[in-house]
Amino acid sequence: MFLAQSFKSATLALIIAATAVPALASGHRIRVEQYGWNNQVGGGQSGHGQRLTVIQNGGSNLSINTQDGYRNRAAVGQSGWNNSADTDQQGHRNAVGVAQMGNNNSATVGQYGHRNVAAVVQTGNNDTASVQQTGAHNVVAIVQD
What is the mean pLDDT of the chain? Predict the structure, then answer.
């Protein structure tokens, strides 16, 4: 019994170390804080110098973030319950926001190009925002109450 638990712990540590090495080698930074329960974060980073921050205070929030290219920035937020944020950045020097303080909000942001800026703030309940930016130097800001 103890040997099986030790093996599982060692395997888990090896998987975490193996997946963290490419992120550290390419200068990526990820920070995730989840205070509630049943929150989920997923995604991936490739390229160089990606930055991602996800903080989910409530419960049953979902954040999926992918970054491909270099020096893309994303930060999510989400404070209530059942919020969903999906960001996809391909290119370089793109920036995303999102925030969502209420419940049952959904935000989808896709950036394909370079130096695009998007920000979404949804403070109420049951809001939906979708942004797709292709090309360069596009700017969008959505605020819903």
Answer: 86
Q: How many angstroms separate the CA atoms of 23 and 46, rounded?
A: 8
Q: Are strands 84-92 and 62-70 parallel, antiparallel or unpaired?
A: parallel
Segment 30-58 shows an average pLDDT of 93
- SS3 for the chain, per residue? CHHHHHHHHHHHHHHHHHHHHHHHHCCCEEEEEECCCCCEEEEEEEEECCEEEEEECCCCCEEEEEEEEECCEEECCCCCCCCEEEEEEEEECCECCCCCCCCCCEEEEEEEEECCEEEEEECCCCCEEEEEEEEECCEEEEEEC
* In the predicted structure, residue 17 carries a pLDDT above the cut 90: no
Whole-structure pTM over 0.85, yes or no?
no
CA distance 8 to 72: 35
User: Could you tell me the residue ranges of all domains in the chain?
Assistant: 28-144
Q: What are the phi and psi torsion angles at 15 (to 5°)?
A: -65, -45
